[in-house]
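pasting for the record
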Amino acid sequence: MMMMRRRRVGPAWSRREWLAGTAAALAAGCAPAGEAPAPLNDADADGAGETAVALPDFEPRSMLHVAETRVVQPRFPVIDVHTHLTWSDVPLGPDPFGERIRKLGEPSAVLPVMDRKGVRTMVNLTGGVGPGLTGARREFDEAHPGRFITFTEPSWNRAADPDYPRFQAEQLERDHAAGARGLKLTKTLGLYLREQITSGPLVTVDDSRFDPMWETCAALGMPVAIHVSDPEAFFLPIDRFNERYEELHAHPDWSFHGSDFPSNAELLAARDRVLARHPGTTFIGLHVGHWAENLAAVGEALDRFPNFHVEIGARIGELGRQPRAARRFFERYQDRILFGTDAIPSPEGDATPQQVFGDALYEIYYRFLETEDEYFDYAPAPVPPQGRWRISGLALPDEILRKVYHENAERVLGLTA
């Protein structure tokens, strides 16, 4: 447990001691410049009428008196291009990935939220493969026409087979005929898939065995929703300088620092080689093109690759802490940005509050896009889950909102308005 108790002044710091020291500084107040804060001891806490506070329990309330606008419904109908309503029930390994799925939410529970929040259509990206895809579409797309769209996924378990390039292209054709609207690439490619599926060297994002898959997507008009990297901090040491320390402390398996993992820059360079090699394939770079912390770099990729688009799922926490740069980004690339949340229904989504499907999540996104509100939470959680900061709204004009909410998705997905 990370406790706000004592701070030891000295050169040597462990992670736990640093957190305790930070807590002490918060509890003790600001010291004059150049002086270390006085150590916090139990007597200080007791004298103030409070006990020491564990960092995960620290929930400061802002004293700012600023506008708080509740946006119950969006200004225009929404197509959420990034959700997860099903998931492969077969993990990465030798068994047929995605051919058996499990539902993360029931249509009967999802549809009322969609109706209340003005969500016309949800795109379920992780729809599985073959019989898994057929089952997902039967439960969602076919039972509720126009409300759900399902993407398929690669058959990762076959990636080591000599005939994989041909097999994957043909599997895509079968899944397209079964109703799959696009292809979803998780960060399995680049960070988890290995030459013998779960052992051996990591398979690179630009490995040539996937070229027929990309080209088949182009031929069939299937956009590729691609996710090849994570926040930049996930590739750095989990130390006192990492702004996502608490998030990585809660999810240590999300760290890609060390071992044989490629760097964030190496993953994005490999992605760019794929984009360049397959100009006829439409790619949607999930999570603001995998680098919401560096909008200039994302803009360079959009300028360089006309076949590249981005969506904003689970990254308004990054966009909203740089609101002026983010608004310029939306103004310049208003035809290339799609609305997405990365929503996952409860209870599966509870572990990641920035993604838990529900009214509160959508209202935060609408507030961010439509209002000028300042310093508000980017997730429906008592403690900011991705980093201890808050965000400001962009107040986008109707022309841009209409494109981001649904027009861009209609064009990319080939939907009728």
